[in-house]
Amino acid sequence: MHQRTLKNLLFCCVFVFALSCETQTVYSEYYQLDNGVWKVGDTIQFKFSEVDTLEKYNMFINIRNDNDFAYSNLFLITEFGYPNGEVVSDTLEYRMAMPDGTWLGKGIGSIKESKLWYRENIVFPDSGVYKLKVTHAMRQNGNVEGISNLNGLTDIGVEITKSTE
Question: So what's the pLDDT on residue 3?
């Protein structure tokens, strides 16, 4: 009887812990890059519509990289499309590593995941399909041409969570 009570208590603790860790994620999707290579001009597109037009949300671009990524930062071009046809473009720079080369992302082993802020407290004003297009804009210093094959990125993702504000 004592062992059964202990198991029930353990189950309840795990259940409460799992509930307390709920992140309020409303959308999450990843695109896996072929062989860890993102070719210049390749656009990754995400589409979503499962959002409440009255809520505030936070949006993140999630990047998974391995040690083949040879840069300390990452430049991205995004196009955010609203259901009414409006498109907002941005050029973004994210820091991926410390000056000593230590990755800023989290993870055990060779793959690190960076959760990068894209939009904070955004309201999706209209019902319908929203689109986020992402391309890389990486260049070597002193070279006008973009890097044709950006190595070391394994997955690109988007995550939308409910804002706590």
Answer: 55
Does this model's pTM top 0.90? no
Report the SS3 class of residue 150.
Answer: strand
Burial class (CB in 10 A: 0-12, 13-18, 19+), 118: buried
Residues 6+ apart with CB under 8 A from 60: 115, 116, 117, 118, 158, 159, 160, 161
SS3 of residue 20 by DSSP: helix
Count of H-run helices and E-run strands, the chain: 1, 10
Hunting for tokens 């993870």 — which residue is that?
107
Tokens of 30: 């990843």
94-120 per-position pLDDT tens digit: 999 999 999 999 998 899 999 999 999
What are the C-alpha distances in Å from 129 to residues 55, 79, 99, 147, 157? 16, 14, 40, 32, 17
* Ranges in the chain, pLDDT < 70: 1-23
